[in-house]
Design a protein that fits this description.
5 helices; 2 domains
């Protein structure tokens, strides 16, 4: 019983620590006049939990391609009827395994799978991957059913999309 109580207390401490750290980072962002990438899109609720969305920019450090990527991300949401960013719960476990298998097969060819994000449309899961890609690698992505779309991570990287229909 004591161990269970101790575990409960440690969980509460971890939650408080996470909250304190997030508030500290938020305060730093505000003091430095920075914004997170996701805040510069029309779909902040969808992009705020992505790796890309967590980066910050400021008037003194504004990546030259950020505006283009934000516009491309807005268009991506609208063109694909995206409802949410996928967090891998039981509902999506089979789809997650599907993407893991495809990614392993692509990586077995020597092509790097990087900057992956997953989105739910209500009838499918869309997986994207953005990275530096050479001409000969494009055919490998196509072989596994991915298609090239406008860059979502950086204009210097290719973004590939695969849609897995579950309904």
């Amino acid at each position: 019983m004591e161990a269970l109580e101790e575990w409960g207390r440690s969980g509460e401490i971890a939650k408080k620590l996470k909250t304190d750290v997030n508030m500290y980072l938020y305060d730093i962002d505000k003091k430095m006049d920075t914004t997170r990438y996701y805040e510069q899109t029309k779909y902040q609720d969808i992009f705020k939990n992505t790796y890309w969305g967590s980066f910050t920019s400021s008037p003194n450090h504004y990546p030259p391609d950020l505006k283009t990527c934000c516009e491309n991300r807005n268009k991506f949401i609208e063109d694909n009827s995206i409802k949410s960013c996928v967090t891998w719960n039981n509902r999506f476990s089979k789809k997650r395994e599907f993407f893991r298998i495809i990614h392993r097969r692509i990586e077995a060819t020597g092509v790097r799978v990087d900057h992956t994000e997953y989105y739910d449309t209500g009838y499918s899961v869309i997986g994207i991957s953005s990275h530096h890609c050479y001409d000969h690698q494009h055919a490998i992505w196509q072989k596994y059913g991915f298609r090239l779309i406008d860059p979502l991570y950086s204009t210097e990287q290719s973004t590939y999309l695969y849609e897995y229909f579950y309904k």
